[in-house]
Specification:
It is a single chain. With 188 residues, the protein is α+β, with helices and mostly antiparallel strands. It has a single domain, classed as Sufe protein. Chain: A. It is 37% helix and 13% strand. The chain has six helices and three strands; from the N terminus they run αββαβαααα. The chain has a three-stranded antiparallel sheet, covered by helices on one side. It is globular, with a radius of gyration of 17 Å. It starts with a helix and ends in a 33-residue tail after the last helix. Bound molecules: zinc ion. Zinc ion binds next to helix 3.
Length: 188
């Protein structure tokens, strides 16, 4: 195995061991969940844009992005990497980075220079795993298409008991975004 392959292997292992931004984001204004039933992976992406005004939304940047999920090592490492790659980017920039990543995992053609995205180039040899690698990215792009919703913290009603279950709040309402367990198979 080449030194570069060793390096790429360590990138994936590191994202697995120390996932970045793996937490619920109570201030999220957009949430999307994806499922990959063939492997059993699930990923929910929480996202907050810099500005919630309609005019700024189109060109606004991703202020915060986090994820929660379960599944195989590739799906979770890819979710962690995704959050580090698209935070601070506009929706168009995020889509362009995903296009680059999707091309790498589908073709195995990695750029010459080191790129964390290229750590997943080996996935192309295992077509069934491509969905694992792209799951979180599809969920993020889905969230980027949504209109902003009221953040969970701001929307939290005062209940009699004062207790809220982890899944209570805006995300579990019928009209709201999908909650964990109701994700969608993006079909790629
Ligand atoms: Zn998987």
């Amino acid at each position: 195995m080449s030194e570069l392959n060793d390096l790429y292997q360590s990138v994936i292992l590191d994202h697995n061991k120390r996932p970045r931004n793996r937490r619920r984001l109570p201030t999220a204004t957009r949430v999307a969940t994806g499922d990959n039933p063939t492997c059993g992976d699930q990923c929910t992406v929480f996202l907050r844009m810099e500005s919630t005004s309609a005019a700024a939304a189109a060109g606004g940047r991703i202020a915060e992005i986090t994820f929660e999920g379960s599944g195989c090592a590739i799906s979770q490492a890819s979710a962690s990497l995704m959050t580090t790659q698209i935070k601070g980017k506009t929706p168009a920039e995020a889509a362009a980075i995903f296009a680059e990543f999707a091309d790498i995992v589908k073709t195995g053609n990695a750029p010459e220079e080191f790129s964390e995205l290229a750590a997943f180039a080996g996935v192309h040899a295992f077509p069934a795993r491509i969905k694992c690698a792209t799951l979180a990215w599809h969920a993020a792009l889905e969230a980027l298409k949504q209109p902003d919703k009221i953040p969970e913290l701001a929307a939290a009603p005062a209940t009699d008991s004062g207790l809220r279950t982890p899944d209570s709040g805006v995300w579990t309402q019928d009209s709201g975004p999908r909650t964990q367990g109701q994700g969608q198979d993006f079909g790629l």
